[in-house]
Amino acid sequence: MTTPTDAERGFALTFVLVTFMLVAVMGLGALSVVMSDLHGAVANQLAMQSLSAAEAGLNYGVAQMTARAAEGTPSDEAYAGEANDLAVPPPGGSPFGTFQVTVRCAYPLGAVPPACHDDPHTFAIDERDLRVVTSTGFIPGRPGRARRQIEATVRRYTAGHGDLNIYGICGRDRVELGQETSVTADVGSNGDILIDGPRLSPGTVRLRVPRTPPSTATVQAITPGGQAAGLSGTYSWRVTFLEGRGVESGGSPPTLPVPLTSQHARLTNIATGDGTIIRRRVYRSLPDSPRGPWFLVGEIPDNDTQDFTDFMPDEALRIRIPGAINGNLTAAGGVFCSRGCANQVEGQITSNVHEVICPAFLPPPVQPGTKPAPNPIVQTATDQTVNWTSLHVGEDEVFTIQTLSTLDARLHIHLTNVVLERGAALVITGPGTVYLHVSGVFILRRDAMFGVTDLSGHLIRPSDRIQVFMSARDASLLETGAASVWWERGNRVSALVFAPNANVLVDRAEAISGGLYGKYVRLTQSTGIVLDPIEGLGSEKSAVWSTPFQYVTRWYDNPNPGP
User: What is the pTM of this model?
Assistant: First the structure.
């Protein structure tokens, strides 16, 4: 047996010590990485908490101005923020965070309310109505490490008739007008506008769609000849072009309404197309529905003949006119058309606009009651508010709202939900204006009618005589498919529907008049939809402007605010 020498023993000891040192260094390095990740995670969590606190402060400041503006004697012009820091308490426990809110004037620079004035060198903007709200959020005990600042410019707005360029359809996330949808309305979106469904993949071949006939035909009532029975009701007609490959254009402008009493209709001066057009088709509305939808009644087998006699019975109408958009399109994102926007849109198209198309207006407050709404609801005072849990109309039932006989009568009805089952009808009588404040859903089942004057389905005029204000908040439609406003099929609606945070789904509607304002708005297979903004958000009767501080024009997030 060999005995280790002193040198060998010393080397072994040195080797062991070096090994221990390397292991210790590696352990310290790993610990350092872990601690660094931990500190990073904590810092990120604190940053998110402080950002949330700052957002809470910003909303608090705007809410304070809103509340002060709604007082009997408004005091919002003097609000300059909070003198002390305010806590954001969680549901029990210590404060989640704190925030500091200040409000200053846009002009003069650096001034604080109520010393806000107009800039004499600008004419397009009223600076006295602008406020710069700054909110700094921080976490208690970590003021140096967890601070976040948000700044927003808000505008005080009291609407006047025609002040804003309001759209018949406005979607804050997106507007989608699906196949076989024909809309007469200006359309706006803070995101994209899709015509005829989702955007086509690159390289997809698009058929050129013929231009829409530019003029209307002349219609004359004539005595029936032969065995065909006459038509009775008020009608309108539209014409389309067909080219050699069978591609059909959108419809011409509708003719003036023509009343028939056991008569046929003779169309003259029918528009002709260019050399690519080989046939034309004639479409007619249903009786007493001259604003659409329109259905095929016959085909002219050439591009020359300019007269046509319509004797098609109403019960034989089956095929709807192809979809087309008659109005201007404005989007902060893109505008995408499956068959070419120049062929599908009859108005001006503006995309990638650097402004808020559909402002972040706040819906009026909702205060539902504890009992179901009675049938009928009868107005008893010129300006009256009633509170119920829900308005539910059973299948084929009729629900009536009776307003007073004075033009300035206003009836506010607060509800949790509005649901009309299949074939149900909501009838409005009297000239007063009805405001429905709804906290939950607005659902119309198949063939339900909302905002009509009788059981024949005549829509109320003007459409702003009934306004529906939704306070529901929906998640992304593309992620969840959920919508608080859902009209199932064959519906006739006359109303302004204002649902800024709710998704709106309309399928195979028969007729809609008024306005649609939502988060994500999707219309599919809905022909002859006429949405008039003057009878909607731009109306003198509109109650959208119940709170003046609502329009965020600029938002700035400062992740490294000063002390």
Answer: 0.61
